[in-house]
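sry for the spam today, last one i promise. C-alpha cells for design, 680 residues
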C-alpha cells in the first residue's frame, strides 16, 4: 500500500486528541490491514501526520503526533498506556489489528523524516521522534531521552503486530517486519520507512525528467525508476535494496504514484550540493589523554568523490539500512584544517570548513566523548578547545563568566588544548562572554532547568556522562525562577525507580548529607529537573593502611590518614609526633565540596613510629599498630604525659595487638611515676 498523504480539510470542527487516537487506529487498520490486503506484502509506510478526511459528523481528527502524544504517559514509560491497551486487546477476539497502530505509525513517520543535519542512526531518529511525540507540558527538554529509554516497549508492540499478521494466515496482509536482519530497536520503524527524507531530492530529479509523471501508473514509474537508478544516484541503502530486490514492488508502485503528485525535495547548499559537516570529536583515553577525531553526521549521498587541493575524499554508505557513512581517501589533518580551513567538493556533496582557533565542545545524549557544538546549551557544562592564537579569547571568556583559569589539558593534536569543564554561567553574563570571545553561536536554554553549583566533579570512565560528582561531594541544586518559598522536591534514583521527597527552603538546596549512594539520579521541582550521577572515590584505601616508601635507609613509611581530626604517631620511646597536614587546594573551598569528613591524604611516618593514633571530631582515639617493636620508653616529657592521659583507658582496634599495647602502657606508667606522674 502507499503512504498516507493529503491535506487536512478546512472549516470542520476538531476531534479531541484522545478521540483522534481512536480515529487513527481505525483508519490505519482499514488502510493498511483491511481484507483487501490479503496475501499482499504490507509496508506500513506513513509520510504525513495529517488525516486524509474528516471523521464521522465532519469532525477533523488531530494530527497523528498530537493524537498519539495525548495517549502517552510522560511520568514514567510513555508508551505504557498503549501497551496496556494492547494487553486488553489480547484478551478479546483479536479480529482487528492491535490498538498500537497509531504509535507505530508515528515511529515510521519519524524514521521517514530523518534528515542528514540531525546526524546518523539512533540520535537522528530519536531527534525526529521527539518532534513528533511531545508532552502537553514541556519536560525541560528531556522527553527525547525518555522516549529512547523505554524503546523496548515499542519493540514489543512491533512483535504484537507481526504476530497478529502471521496468525491471520495472510488474510490481512503479509508482514514485512521480519525482513530486518538485525532487529535493533529502531530498525522496525526503519524497515517500513523505505523512502527516507534523504531520498527526496533524488526523487525530485527523477520525477522532473519524466513527462506527465503525475499521470503515470505506479508500475510504470517503478520500472522507469529502476532503469534510472545507478550506484551514483543519491538513494539511501534501504531504498536501493528495495529497488534491486523487487520484493517491495507491490508497495513501492502505489507509493511512487502518490509521491509523483507532489514530490518533496530536501534543502541543499547554494550551489545545489549537500553540505557534509565535519565536526571535532574528543575522546578521553585513560593512558593517552584526549584524542581528537573527525566526526561527521549522515550524508544525503550514497557515494561521491570530493576533490581538494591535497587529494580526494570518498563518501560511501557504511552499513545496510542506516544513514551512516564513511569518509576515506586523503582525510585532512585536524590541526591544519582548523588553522587554515578546508574545502572539498564533488558531484553531490561538499565540505566547507572556516579557519578557527577557539571551539566549544559539549556532550551528546547517548554518545561517548565531546563534540563540536553548533549551539550552546546554557544549562549544560562544556569545554573550550583552543590553540595559541585562541588562548587569549579562552582566558577572556573564563574571566567574563567568573570561572577560574587553570592549566588546560593537552590533546593528541600538538598545540591544541582543552580547558576544564565550565559550569554554565548566569544568563546575563553568558551572551556577552560568548560574543566577546568570538563564539557567535546560537544559545538554547531548557525550560526552567535546575542548575547544579559547587560540588566535586568526577571524571567518569566515559566522558559522555554529564553532571558526574564524587560520592560525598554532592553539589547544591539552584532553582531558576522558583521563588524563595517552601516546597518539596522529588529525588528519583534511576536504578530502582525509588522516589524520595526533599523539603526545599528557598532557591538553593544542598544535596550533601542526605545519605545518597552511588548511582544516577534525577531531581524534580516545580517543573524543573536535572540529572546527575554520584561516583565512589576509587584508588584510596577505606581504612588506615601503610605501605613502604623507598628511601636511602629503607626505613621510611607512608600512611594514609583522614584529613579531619587529630593524627599523631607514637614512637618506640613513648613520644608523640603530629602528622603534617597538607593545605587543601583553593578549589577545595571554592567548590564547597563537603568532603572534609571523608577525605584522606598520605603522610610520611617517623622512622621510630610504632602506633598511629587518629581521633576524629567527637570520636574516641583509634589506635593502629604500624610496626611490631617492644617499648624503649625513658624519660617522659610533659607534652607526652599530657597526651598519654587520653589513651590510658583505650585499646587498639585489633584485639591481637592488645598485649603489646598493654606493655607500652605499663612502661609509660612506670617511667611517668619516676617523673612525678599523678594519675589520669
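last one done:
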Amino acid at each position: 500500500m502507499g503512504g498516507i498523504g493529503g491535506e487536512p480539510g478546512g472549516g470542520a470542527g476538531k476531534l479531541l486528541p484522545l478521540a483522534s487516537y481512536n480515529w487513527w487506529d481505525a483508519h490505519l487498520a482499514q488502510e493498511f490491514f483491511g481484507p483487501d490486503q490479503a496475501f499482499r506484502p504490507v509496508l506500513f509506510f506513513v509520510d504525513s501526520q495529517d488525516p486524509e478526511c474528516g471523521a464521522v459528523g465532519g469532525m477533523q481528527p488531530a494530527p497523528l503526533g498530537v493524537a498519539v502524544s495525548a495517549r502517552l504517559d510522560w511520568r514514567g514509560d510513555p508508551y505504557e498506556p498503549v501497551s496496556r491497551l494492547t494487553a486488553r486487546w489480547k484478551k478479546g477476539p483479536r479480529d482487528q489489528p492491535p490498538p498500537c497502530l497509531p504509535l507505530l505509525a508515528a515511529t515510521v513517520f519519524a524514521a521517514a523524516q530523518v534528515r542528514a543535519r540531525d546526524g546518523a542512526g539512533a540520535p537522528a531518529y530519536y531527534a525526529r521522534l521527539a518532534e513528533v511525540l511531545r508532552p502537553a507540558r514541556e519536560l525541560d527538554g528531556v522527553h527525547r531521552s525518555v522516549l529512547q529509554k523505554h524503546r523496548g516497549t515499542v519493540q514489543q508492540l512491533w512483535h504484537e503486530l507481526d504476530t497478529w499478521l502471521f496468525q491471520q494466515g495472510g488474510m490481512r496482509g503479509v508482514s514485512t517486519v521480519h525482513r530486518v536482519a538485525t532487529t535493533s530497536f529502531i530498525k522496525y520503524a526503519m524497515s517500513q520507512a523505505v523512502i527516507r527524507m534523504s531520498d527526496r531530492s533524488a526523487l525530485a530529479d527523477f520525477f522532473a525528467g519524466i513527462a506527465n509523471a503525475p499521470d503515470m501508473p505506479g508500475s510504470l514509474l517503478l520500472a522507469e525508476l529502476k532503469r534510472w537508478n545507478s550506484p551514483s544516484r543519491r538513494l539511501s541503502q534501504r531504498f536501493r535494496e528495495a529497488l534491486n530486490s523487487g520484493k517491495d514492488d507491490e508497495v513501492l508502485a502505489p507509493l511512487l504514484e502518490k509521491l509523483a503528485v507532489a514530490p518533496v525535495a530536501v534543502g541543499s547548499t547554494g550551489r545545489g550540493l549537500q553540505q557534509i559537516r565535519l565536526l571535532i570529536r574528543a575522546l578521553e583515553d585513560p593512558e593517552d589523554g584526549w584524542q581528537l577525531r573527525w566526526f561527521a553526521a549522515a550524508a544525503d549521498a550514497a557515494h561521491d568523490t570530493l576533490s581538494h587541493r591535497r587529494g580526494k575524499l570518498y563518501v560511501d554508505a557504511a552499513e545496510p539500512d542506516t544513514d551512516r557513512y564513511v569518509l576515506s581517501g586523503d582525510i585532512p589533518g585536524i590541526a591544519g584544517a582548523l588553522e587554515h580551513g578546508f574545502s572539498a567538493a564533488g558531484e553531490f556533496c561538499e565540505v566547507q570548513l572556516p579557519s578557527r582557533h577557539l571551539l566549544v565542545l559539549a556532550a551528546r545524549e547517548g554518545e561517548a566523548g565531546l563534540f563540536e557544538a553548533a549551539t550552546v546549551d546554557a544549562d549544560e557544562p562544556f569545554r573550550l578547545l583552543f590553540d595559541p592564537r585562541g588562548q587569549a579569547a579562552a582566558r577572556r571568556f573564563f574571566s567574563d563568566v567568573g570561572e577560574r583559569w587553570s592549566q588546560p589539558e593537552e590533546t593528541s593534536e600538538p598545540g591544541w588544548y582543552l580547558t576544564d569543564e565550565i559550569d554554565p554561567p548566569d544568563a546575563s553574563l553568558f551572551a556577552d562572554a560568548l560574543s566577546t570571545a568570538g563564539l557567535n553561536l546560537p544559545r538554547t536554554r531548557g525550560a526552567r532547568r535546575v542548575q547544579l553549583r559547587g560540588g566535586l566533579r568526577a571524571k567518569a570512565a566515559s566522558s559522555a556522562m554529564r553532571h558526574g560528582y564524587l560520592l560525598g561531594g554532592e553539589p547544591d541544586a539552584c532553582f531558576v525562577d522558583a521563588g524563595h518559598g517552601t516546597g518539596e522536591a522529588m529525588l528519583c534514583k534511576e536504578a530502582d525507580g525509588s522516589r524520595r521527597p526533599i523539603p526545599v527552603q528557598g532557591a538553593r538546596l544542598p544535596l550533601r548529607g542526605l545519605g545518597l549512594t552511588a548511582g544516577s539520579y534525577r531531581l524534580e521541582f516545580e517543573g524543573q529537573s536535572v540529572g546527575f550521577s554520584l561516583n565512589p572515590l576509587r584508588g584510596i584505601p577505606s581504612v588506615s593502611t601503610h605501605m613502604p616508601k623507598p628511601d636511602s635507609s629503607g626505613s621510611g613509611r607512608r600512611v594514609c590518614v583522614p584529613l579531619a581530626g587529630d593524627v599523631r604517631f607514637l614512637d618506640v620511646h613513648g613520644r608523640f609526633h603530629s602528622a603534617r597536614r597538607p593545605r587543601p587546594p583553593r578549589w577545595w573551598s571554592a567548590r564547597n565540596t563537603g568532603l572534609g569528613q571523608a577525605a584522606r591524604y598520605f603522610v610520611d611516618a617517623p622512622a621510630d613510629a610504632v602506633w598511629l593514633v587518629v581521633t576524629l571530631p567527637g570520636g574516641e582515639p583509634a589506635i593502629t599498630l604500624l610496626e611490631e617493636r617492644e617499648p624503649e620508653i625513658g624519660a617522659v616529657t610533659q607534652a607526652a604525659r599530657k597526651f598519654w592521659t587520653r589513651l590510658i583507658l583505650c585499646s587498639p582496634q585489633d584485639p591481637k595487638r592488645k598485649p603489646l599495647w598493654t606493655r607500652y602502657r605499663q612502661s609509660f606508667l612506670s617511667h611517668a611515676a619516676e617523673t612525678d606522674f599523678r594519675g589520669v
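The chain has a mean pLDDT of 76. ok im logging off now
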